[in-house]
TrEMBL record:
The keyword Transmembrane helix does not apply. Keywords: Decarboxylase, Lyase. This is Histidine decarboxylase-like. It comes from Nicotiana tabacum. Belongs to the group II decarboxylase family.
Length: 108
């Protein structure tokens, strides 16, 4: 972990903007300042790597691992609505939150 904050003054102008996008990267954005083109380029790269045809994939780039994990759990719940969530005490997402938002049954 980098705990040196000496760089904050140089980065301050960049920190006033939220550079990741909200919503679908494949839709038009009413705001001109966005990174959707880069986001779609990353998705295109992975689709080409995995040999997925154009218009046969969708996705988005998350702001971090927790958001990615939550989205994966959401997709899992949609595909397997009677599934059981198993976890341990080392989860970064509180088990009560997972149970209340995503799963009917959660075992830890």
């Amino acid at each position: 972990m980098n705990v040196c904050y000496e760089h904050h003054a140089a980065l301050a102008p960049l920190l006033q903007f939220h550079l990741n996008n909200c919503g679908d990267p494949f839709t038009e954005n009413p705001i001109d300042f966005h990174s959707k083109d880069f986001e779609v380029a990353v998705l295109d790269w992975f689709a080409q790597l995995w040999e997925i045809e154009k218009d046969e994939y969708w996705g988005y780039i998350t702001n971090g691992g927790t958001e990615g994990n939550l989205h994966g759990l959401l997709i899992g719940r949609e595909l397997h609505p009677t599934g059981v969530h198993y976890s341990n005490g080392h989860s970064t997402i509180p088990n009560y939150l997972l149970k209340s938002l995503y799963f009917r049954r959660s075992l830890n």
